[in-house]
Amino acid sequence: MPMLMRTDPFRDFDRLAQQLLGPGTTSRPTVMPMDAWREGDTFVLEFDLPGVRPETVDVDVERNVLTIRAERPAPNGDWEMLASERPTGLFSRQLVLGDNLDLEHVSADYDAGVLRLQVPVAEKAKPRKIEVSTGSSQEQGAITT
To answer: For residue 30, how many other CB atoms are within 10 A of its CB?
Structure first.
């Protein structure tokens, strides 16, 4: 019975580039993996940042651009690294968000290496019912003698 193996050549390329170019820097930050979905009237974004200290996480909103930055320093010490697959240095991600989101009420929570942002849908973008009035235009325009 053959065994199926899933390979990702881009992961190997990223690992090689990381080894050659070093950790993320201010001019070339490492990208953080993200999932996004909608739960009712809220958009949820989760970013994987294992090993990142919470005080290094920075979330900014300017106009409709959401920017997330974090840093995981390279380990210091007097030892020889045998394997280095976990990225270190600066992490950064920018997302352009639509006008239908309420960027004044974004909430952020960091737990177990996952940064979770919740962005509510703006009130003006929520569907609403429009009441239809009834009445006959003939009755209003009738002339009495």
So the answer is: 19
pLDDT at position 24 is: 53
For 62-82, how does the pLDDT look when each residue is reduced to its tens digit (9 = 90+)? Answer: 988 899 999 988 888 888 888
- Kindly report the pTM of this predicted structure: 0.66
Could you tell me whether strands 107-111 and 114-120 are parallel, antiparallel, or unpaired per DSSP bridges? antiparallel
DSSP tag of 48: E
Rounded distance, CA 56 to CA 76, Å? Answer: 18
Give the mean model confidence (pLDDT) for residues 16-24.
Answer: 55
Exposure string (b/e) for 41-80, b if CB count within 10 Å is 16 or more?
A: ebbebebebeebeeeebebebeeeebebbbbbeeeeeeee
Backbone torsions φ then ψ of 45, nearest 5 degrees:
-125, 130
**H runs (alpha helix) in 72-144:** 137-140
β pairing state of 65-72 and 42-48:
unpaired
